[in-house]
Write a structure and sequence with these properties.
Elements (H helix, E strand, L loop, with lengths): L1 H21 L1 E2 L5 E6 L4 E9 L3 E6 L4 E5 L3 E7 L35 E5 L3 E8 L2 E7 L6 E12 L2 E12 L3 E16 L3 E14 L2 E15 L4 E10 L2 E5 L2 E5 L2 E13 L2 E6 L2 E4 L2 E4 L4 E7 L1
Length: 297
């Protein structure tokens, strides 16, 4: 009888013993982003984890059990992803773009997006490793411009990209076209970065063409979980050219665009900026703000 009771006790204790051994207690001090299948996320330290659930200690000292089947991804957070107030800031999902220009960072695989402008849409697709293709146009389909960009990682926080834009006047002006090969060098990451770009823009109409060198200085910093400061510029350098025996001078023309990006939700952002036009040494503010919407595809 005693033997039977002893065997029964072992029988009931064995599963408990295995369950305890299956639980892994975390001893590190890292914080983690726990992204759920519904797109929401929880930031905190992992106390323990087993096959069924994860126990998380949040920043406000709450302990939350999260079932494993609702967890899409667990990502460790670096110290630099927190601001001075201890808030998790994280990456800017659209960190590869400013208002007009781009930088050396590549679009992450699968993170295609569309940038809605007042004048029309701009689609961007990550079609390969560090390689993206895009197309932009107006609501009238005039012009249609294709884009291409290939990024190269030079160091932990330095990137170089080469690319180009090629456009046509389409149905309204089939003889009109343009091309803009460019290169851009950027320093930073997807939370804070700065970029300098250079290229040559050429326009042709019925076989008669002209072009100008251009450059850009741009940058962004994500200052809180919901806000990023964005600065962009587009500078046409001055030049002198000869046509039909006469000399012509093109002055320096620049667009200067400072603004803010509001991260509404995962994969959604609203961006607005104030545009100034510089002609030689004079600044003229434009009364219409730059307004854009970002959406993940």
């Amino acid at each position: 009888m005693k033997t039977t009771i002893f065997i029964l006790i072992l029988f009931f204790l064995a599963p408990l013993s295995f369950a305890q051994n299956d639980t892994i207690k975390k001893k590190d001090t890292l914080s983690y982003r726990i992204i759920k299948t519904d797109g929401s996320e929880i930031i905190g330290k992992i106390i323990s984890e087993d096959r069924r659930e994860v126990l998380v200690l949040t920043s406000d000292n709450r302990e939350i059990y999260i079932p494993q089947h609702v967890i899409k991804e667990i990502i460790p957070i670096k110290k630099e992803e927190f601001n001075s107030l201890g808030q998790f800031v994280g990456e800017d999902k659209f960190a590869t773009r400013y208002f007009i220009t781009t930088n050396g960072l590549p679009i992450k695989k699968g993170e295609h997006y569309i940038q809605w402008n007042l004048f029309g849409p701009d689609f961007q697709f990550a079609v390969g490793k560090n390689f993206g293709l895009g197309v932009m146009t107006s609501w009238m389909g005039i012009p249609i411009i294709g884009t291409v960009k290939k990024s190269f990682r030079l160091g932990e926080n330095t990137h170089l990209a080469i690319g180009g834009l090629l456009g046509s006047g389409t149905w309204a002006a089939p003889d009109y076209g343009g091309a803009l090969p460019f290169a851009t060098f950027s320093v930073g990451n997807r939370r804070v970065n700065a970029a300098v770009s250079a290229g040559y823009g050429a326009i042709w109409l019925s076989g008669d063409g002209s072009g100008r060198a251009l450059t850009s200085l741009a940058g962004m910093v994500k200052i809180s979980p919901k806000l990023s400061f964005v600065f962009d510029s587009f500078i046409l350098l001055p030049n002198t050219y000869v046509r039909y025996g006469s000399k012509y001078y093109n002055p320096l023309i620049a667009l200067i665009i400072p603004g803010m990006r509001w991260h509404q939700d995962e994969g959604k952002a609203f961006q607005f900026g104030f545009t100034g036009v510089v002609v030689e040494n004079e600044l003229f503010p434009l009364p219409i703000p730059m307004v854009q919407w970002y959406r993940s595809l």
